Amino acid sequence: MKKEWFFDRFCGEQIVVYAEDGKIIEAGVENEKQGDVLGNIYKGRVANIVPGMQAAFVNCGMERNGYLPLNEGTAIFSKYEGNGRAGAADLQVGDEILVQVVKPPRGSKGAKVSCELSFVGKNLIFLPRTDFLGISRKIAEGEKREALLKEADKFREKGQGFIVRTAALNATKRALKIESDYLKRMYRATLEAAKDAPVGSAVYREYDLPVKVMRDSLGDGDAKVYVGDEELYEKVLNLARMRSDLGEKRIVRYAGERSMFSFYGLDEQIFRLTDPQIPLENGAHLIIDRTEAMTVFDVNTGKYTGENDLESTVLSTNLLAAKEIARQVRLRNIGGIVAVDFIDMAEEEHRLAVNAALEEALSEDRAKCRVLPMSDLCVTLFTRKRMAGELSSFLLKPCVHCTRQGYILSDVYMAMRIRAAILNCFAEGYSAAIVELNRALMNKILSEGYLSQEAAGSWREKRVYFIPHSVYPEEKFAVRGDNSPVLRLPDTAQILY
User: Fold this and answer.
1) Which residues are within 8 A (CB) of 283 and not within 5 positions of it... i.e. 6 or more apart?
2) Structural contact between residues 385 and 367, judged by C-beta atoms closer than 8 angstroms
């Protein structure tokens, strides 16, 4: 199996894609200015305490106050096997405290925060305020588990804890010690930064997207890493040089004229993630619907009519759907409650088989998933831990023409599609690219500087003209090339930057 990672940055976003045999398995996007708040530590002030909810609301400097459960304890580390306890916070309104974001804001909900701070390394997670010793469930060998737990126990002081991550399976004792000391220094530096920091400021920020991926997902194996931006390439290369399990030979600087994602056939796959209908290999399909409370998958036979009886047709479709649903929640980074309406099956044995297939497919996910038994109505519920923001929040935005009940492509994603079309135009030998697009989208691209990096760099010797149209829908655009020394353009045309 060919495994490939793709790193790039443009339009103010950092993008990471993981593909197996050319098929996207995971994708992540992060704004370079805003970053991802998950894992950040803020100096906050308790704004309100609600005894009936056993929760406090903390002003962390974000748009909405953070939600702090007072009785959660070590539940936030429940995906690891271990023992210990964390004391509930004894808080009063007005108290200044350090809190860490454990779930990012979503929709109308503020971030979920915790007083139980954690500092994540490649092999260990340091818990400076939590008396807990745990280990990844994926480390199955008994003697190895015991040895790693014993080693981690040496590093902690009274009231502290460590979690041994899966990557520690191949780590030396010296490497574990060095990492534990480093994580403790990070905690001390955070405390020092918090002394004079104003309320609402971040005193510790998680690594940006490429660094987190290098830390958590890349390691032993033969995956190639392609990087489409020179600055990002140097960053990834320097990180690889510090990793004996990675090595710089696997890092490749993509230098093609076309968009890297377009060249490797990933553009169209990313675009299909905006479609609520997901085709299956046998002609059946899934329908995905997002609500405030959950995400719903509906399984349909579509064009697939089977070869034998109805029950076998339904079973084969549901088994195929279970695998694809597991792939889609990982690919789209869907978190929270997920409901799956499978096609009705009469046989109890078949319902158990489909549920088992879904559970097995989800077991490959890095995010913790919990599958409930299938009901008699052939509906299965499962939960998936939220890992940063869902990909749909980057690709789509609410449509103002249907009272925000529907979605259209987001401005930044449209800018990325236009960028790829301009690159393809220049790769075909044209010196000028003429882009016809919606007027509001043009103004957004110019005001946000989505293409300023290219205009100041690789497009310095080229010409890009925008022709705005008031009647164009936001998702419509056209790009054409021209080599004429004198261009005939309407008075409304505007040169890029």
Assistant:
1) 302, 303, 304
2) yes
Q: Mapping DSSP to helix (H, G, I), strand (E, B) and coil, where does residue 126 land?
A: strand
In a structure prediction context, what are the per-residue pLDDT tens digits for the chain, which is 497 residues long? 888 999 999 898 899 999 988 889 888 888 887 777 888 999 999 999 998 888 999 999 888 999 999 876 544 554 555 555 544 457 889 999 999 998 888 767 889 999 989 999 889 999 998 888 999 888 888 889 999 999 999 999 988 999 999 888 888 899 899 889 989 998 999 999 999 899 999 999 888 888 888 777 766 567 889 999 998 999 888 877 766 666 778 889 998 999 999 999 999 999 988 889 999 988 889 999 988 788 999 999 877 666 677 888 889 899 999 999 999 999 888 888 999 999 999 889 999 999 999 999 998 887 889 999 999 899 999 999 877 667 888 888 888 777 666 788 999 999 999 999 999 999 999 999 999 999 999 999 999 999 999 999 889 999 999 999 999 999 999 999 999 988 889 999 999 87
Q: What is the pTM of this model?
A: 0.78
Q: What are phi and psi of 147, to 5 degrees?
A: -65, -40
Q: Under a CB-based contact definition with an 8 Å cutoff, are residues 325 and 278 in contact?
A: no
Check: CB of residue 473 under 8 Å from CB of residue 422: no
Nearest Cα to Cα of residue 296 among 362, 330, 253, 340: 340
Give the whole-angstrom CA distance, residue 25 versus residue 37: 24
Q: Are strands 477-482 and 432-438 parallel, antiparallel or unpaired?
A: antiparallel
Phi first, then psi: give them for residue 125, nearest 5 degrees: -120, 125
CA 274 to chain centre: 15
Token pair for 146: 């015991």
CA 68 from chain center: how many Å? 23
Partners of 494 in the beta sheet? 466
Beta-bridge partners for 188:
none
Residue 329's nearest CA partner among 314, 339, 344, 343 is 339
How many whole angstroms separate alpha carbon 61 and alpha carbon 47? 12
Contact 374, 335 (CB under 8 A): no
Per-residue b/e over 238-273, b at no fewer than 16 CB within 10 Å? ebbeeeeebeeeebeebeeebbbbbbbebbebbeeb
Burial class (CB in 10 A: 0-12, 13-18, 19+), 166: middle
Polymer length in residues for the chain: 497
| Residue of 408, 401, 393, 386 lying closest to 275 (CA atoms) | 408
Residues linked to residue 125 through DSSP beta bridges, in sequence order: 120, 163
